UniProtKB/TrEMBL annotation:
Superkingdom of the organism of origin: Bacteria
Enzyme class: isomerase
One Gene Ontology molecular-function label: phosphoglycerate mutase activity
List of residues binding substrate: T20, G21, R57
Keywords assigned: Glycolysis, Hydrolase, Isomerase
Listed name of the protein: phosphoglycerate mutase (2,3-diphosphoglycerate-dependent)
EC number per UniProt: 5.4.2.11
Taxonomic lineage of the native organism: Bacteria, Bacillati, Actinomycetota, Actinomycetes, Streptosporangiales
Similarity field: Belongs to the phosphoglycerate mutase family. BPG-dependent PGAM subfamily.
GO biological process: glycolytic process
Enzyme active site: H8 (tele-phosphohistidine intermediate), E81 (proton donor/acceptor)
InterPro entries: His_Pase_superF_clade-1 (IPR013078), His_PPase_superfam (IPR029033), Phosphogly_mut1 (IPR005952)
Organism, as annotated: Actinomadura namibiensis
């Protein structure tokens, strides 16, 4: 299976400098156009199905990008962002400045980054056989990208947690 990973589009919380975590979030006006452009960019890219986090900002990205294409869009909780627990909705600078501390220790009332990566990574065993030889798109979050980087590419989480996210138009992975 070929996996194309894209992050959800820019959200209202991104505008406000908030770490949304497991809160639903909504796309901002700044994010709605790139979500539509994602669909335009990927429609003729051989995408057989779209798998999206069930959090509203990712689901809205998937809907704007693929809602009128006939490409199946499936939502799953495993593709969610890390649950920052009591820090869901806190200032992003506060949450992300200390994220290495939460690599193996859960955020208060939430989960650790390692737990989030393994949860998101369980998605890799789930796509139905219908798409096992297909090219699929996954719309998710930092935890989703780290799961793929760690579990498919073999990058250590200690390296990923300290690296800049480095947004771009998609990352590609191959599951064998």
């Amino acid at each position: 299976m070929e996996i194309v990973f894209e992050t959800h589009a820019w959200s209202l919380d991104n505008d406000r400098g908030i770490a949304t975590g497991w809160l639903p979030g909504r796309l901002s006006e700044r994010g709605r156009r790139p979500a539509a452009e994602l669909g335009e960019r990927r429609r003729d890219d051989g995408i057989a199905a779209v798998f999206s986090s069930d959090l509203a900002r990712a689901a809205e990205t998937a809907s704007l990008a693929f809602g009128d294409t006939g490409v199946p869009v499936l939502h799953g909780w495993r593709l969610r962002e890390c649950d920052h627990g009591e820090l869901n909705g806190a200032p992003a600078a506060e949450v992300h400045a200390g994220r290495a501390r939460y690599l193996d220790r859960p955020y208060p009332g939430g989960e650790s980054w390692r737990q989030a990566v393994h949860r998101a990574g369980r998605f890799l065993a789930d796509p139905p056989p219908r798409w096992s030889d297909a090219r699929v798109l996954v719309i998710g979050h930092v935890a989703t990208r780290w799961a793929f980087g760690h579990l498919i590419d073999g990058r250590p989480l200690e390296e990923l947690v300290d690296a800049d996210f480095g947004w771009r138009e998609g990352w590609e992975y191959r599951l064998t």
